[in-house]
Amino acid sequence: MTSILLVAERDEQGEISQSTVQAIAAANGLVDSVVTAAIAGEAPASASALAVEKVVTLSSIDDADLGIYDQATAEISALVESTSPEVVIFSKSDFGSVVGARLAFRSDSAFAADCIEISNAGDGVSVTRPVYGGSALAEFDIVSSRAIITLRAGAYETNTETGSPSIEAFESGVNVEQTASVTGTVAEAREGVRLEDANFVVSGGRGLGGPEPFSVLTDLANALGGAVGASRAACDAGWIDHSHQVGLTGKSVSPDVYIAVGISGASQHMAGCSSSRAIVAINKDADSNIFKEARFGIVGDWEKVLPSFLATVRELKA
Amino acid sequence: MTVRIVVLAKQVPDPETPPSQFKIDESTNTVIPPNGVPPVVNGFDLNAVEAALLLRDAGADVEITVLSVGSDFVMDAMKKPLAMGADRLVLVDDSGLGNIDSAATVKVLAAAIEKDGPYDLILGGRQASDWDQAHVTLGLAEVLGLPLVSLVQKLELDGDSVSLQRVIPDGYQTITAPVPSVLTITNELGESRYPNLRGIMQASRKKPEVFSLADLGLSSDDLAPKLELRKLYIPESNKQVELIEGEDEADSGKKLALRLREEKLI
How far is B12 from chain A (nearest CA, A)? Predict the structure, then answer.
């Protein structure tokens, strides 16, 4: 038997997130797994049909803890101590990345971040994760009595498996006095569709040469009803705000069409867009790595290619 | 009063190595260093060095120590933070540290900080560009029992506390943290400065202070792994790009749109 604690997260509507449902599929894929899901606050309606044995609600964790996660780390540590799971699975989110790592060191457990696979290996468990910015994959055996992992969104399918778990409350009684405190939240202004939700993403990189060309990319994104992305190089150069950054250290997108303009296709960038349905590359350099990742490509100058592409898109959409 | 800052820095293979030169020796599960491409200091750690230097630029009296754990250090690479303006370089250099996991790395860093500290701020990059785990600095905060704020894009010293901006997916949080604290710095901070000639000259005259494991009261027994690397490999790609070629580049653009329509993608 492998006892697994799965730390669930919510989507914007407060229901169980897709990445949590995927993590449940990963957990149920292990031999003889017994899965408990834990969730902060009250259980949402969708919790009662999760394909797990038990749902544990953690009422002591609230929004005041967001970003600092002191209370969440303390409460989940207490739950882990009292139930001794062999594997604890988080989503690779802001919450999971911070709380998972802290929990691992607090409970002297192994930690593996951003895994794309978890499987049985003999009596134990092994995980696969991308390394070197996605250029390579590494398989690790867990040689510790407990493993804490974060799971990359999209690594497992969102299946429709359901169950009828019991729902219990857990409260350790621990109340952490926060040492750092959040004094405010500033939302970036955004026009149009959210980058992560867009069906079309038009991204620009170093090859654009400056900030002005992003207006052409914006026109194209608007014509397609999509959003504008960028490589880290373009963001770090200050050509466009970092909230547009796609890649390992930026956002992960999976649109129908990802149009990469003047982007070389370093693996760190591809880590954020490789699950797109089709990648289209426009780049002057025929040897550029992006052509190894793309389904369609044009070797050429974007300044000459984009106007006619945009005009034709507009005609087709009209 | 001088604010003592330690920045954690890791030597990594140059992530700008062209993919065609990125090779793995599958018999030893290690990356083969590409010819003529020396290792570098992890770029995200340079963001943390930059953050410390920005505090100095803003008028704070800071002493910046760069701390690294490893073996086979290439001094030209490791001195870059000094050339940028950091004051000291402390290396825990031991042949036993070449291939340790992050749990062991945290243990060694904690022991080094215990010995060389105390520090007012402990800064690390958001992640390392080799193993991409993004948790050594977080783990260190746990082991040292210090407050932690991750993904900081801006910081200001404010007496006994630091005012921070922490990046979240659609904006940022403003946070006040006490001193001492542990912070991870993200690349949203902005590009790290290039060393100038004067900085390079000064760095060339500085010698790193070196500790061995034994100096820190540790032995290889303390570094037992929790994760064992079984296999490291480059995933195969079987993608075949379809190049669209028109009479000229404008024609290619038009044909691309028509081709995407044909595939029902637009």
Answer: 10
